[in-house]
Specification:
- With 189 residues, this protein is of the alpha+beta class.
- The chain has a single domain, classed as Alpha-Beta Plaits, CATH 3.30.70.
- It is built from 5 helices and 11 strands, in the order E-H-E-E-E-H-E-E-E-H-E-E-H-E-E-H.
- A hairpin with a 2-residue loop joins strand 6 and strand 7.
- The two termini are 17 Å apart.
């Protein structure tokens, strides 16, 4: 079952969805550490996190599989402040953006998927994330929370799942693979 922690609420707050991914330097441990770090984000509370998933990389760059998860954060931070904090966590894990290949391997990738009902077309912070509806590694964990979840500006998660059904994704628990997320999606429907 997915992990859920409740902390005293911060006021005023917004619900933010964060995607977590890694395919370098013990990726499962990187994702687990990142989830722990999200629980300590100032003026925020980690309310929920998905299972971890093993996913095939996208973009055509040869690289190892990713470990991915999604987290729901209640935060009083403004979007740019939250993004800045996420980028600090990436840097602390060893991510060096200037040295990376576009869509290449990552020590840690933390993407702000959505922030309440905020819409932004700013190139530095596009909200909701412009490709979240195209990625099984985002949609499947979000559907684990609720397939009927609506991301403002993106729509209902369940409506996008058929388009990513061919993408390789497997739910893992600890070091043991439990089941194909494709089968999990069918059971959740």
């Amino acid at each position: 079952m997915a992990y859920q922690t409740r902390h005293p609420a911060c006021h005023p707050t917004v619900m933010a969805w964060i995607s977590i991914g890694s395919n370098l330097d013990l990726p499962e441990a990187q994702v687990r550490r990142a989830l722990g770090a999200l629980a300590a984000v100032p003026e925020s509370a980690l309310l929920w996190q998905s299972h971890l998933y093993r996913t095939a990389p996208v973009g055509g760059v040869p690289q190892p599989a990713f470990i991915n998860a999604v987290a729901r954060l209640q935060t009083a931070l403004q979007p740019r402040a939250l993004l800045s904090h996420l980028q600090m966590l990436e840097a602390a894990a060893g991510r060096r953006r200037a040295e990376e290949i576009y869509w290449g391997p990552r020590v840690l990738d933390l993407d702000l998927l959505s922030y309440g009902t905020t819409h932004s077309t700013d190139p530095e912070l596009t909200l909701p994330h412009p490709r979240l509806h195209e990625r099984a590694f985002v949609l499947v964990p979000l559907a684990e929370f609720d397939p009927e979840l609506v991301i403002p500006g993106c729509g209902r998660i369940a409506d996008h799942l058929p388009a990513v059904a061919g993408q390789s994704i497997t739910r893992i628990s600890g070091n043991i693979q439990e089941t194909s997320a494709r089968n999990t999606r069918s059971a959740q429907a």
